[in-house]
């Protein structure tokens, strides 16, 4: 396993839609293992493949520190809301260091996809796991969570980013 470099805000791969996975092979298994190790090393809750420069529809997650939390991966995820109830909570991103902003998401979602062997996977998730699914799937669609903010709040956060030590012009 290898800890991969996490791409940072401004890298075009973060705004690129990832391609569907069609080959479930050893390379995919290695990618998933590397992503889990990278996420753990960075202290994240989730990590999408394009955050490590790979435009494939894969994300990993670790919500085990919450009640009924799960750890694993999802390939070719597709989600839909269950009901209209939303949650608002602090959301950050490993690709946008030191920024955490209250972001509205659906409270409960149903997600389906595949595991590393290509077997179908589906689950219903609420709370942090639901937030993670929505956030990571956004990444795979080339959407950063900043797009989910109001224009005023996004403007404030962008001003913070522009003055951040990690942001290079």
What's this entry about, in short?
The chain is an alpha+beta fold and 169 residues long.
> For this structure, what is the CATH class?
Alpha Beta
Shape, please?
globular
CATH superfamily: Peptide deformylase
Counted up, domains total 1
Total of helices: 3
Per CATH, the architecture is: Alpha-Beta Complex
Helical/strand content category: alpha+beta
Q: What fraction, in percent, of the residue positions are helical? A: 25-40%
Euclidean distance between termini CA atoms: 32 Å
Largest sheet: 5 strands, antiparallel
Enzyme class: hydrolase
InterPro entries: Peptide_deformylase, Peptide_deformylase_sf
Keywords: Hydrolase, Iron, Metal-binding, Protein biosynthesis
EC number: 3.5.1.88
Please characterize this protein's 3D structure.
The model has no long low-confidence stretch (mean pLDDT 95). The strands form 2 sheets. Strands 1-2-3-6-7 form a 5-stranded antiparallel beta sheet. Helices cover 26% and strands 31% of the residues. A hairpin with a 2-residue loop joins β4 (86-93) and β5. The chain is α+β, with helices and mostly antiparallel strands and 169 residues long. The chain has a single domain (12-163), classed as Peptide Deformylase. The protein has helices at 26-42, 127-140, 151-163, and strands spanning 46-48, 58-62, 71-81, 86-93, 96-106, 108-114, 120-126. The chain is built from 3 helices and 7 strands. The termini are far apart.
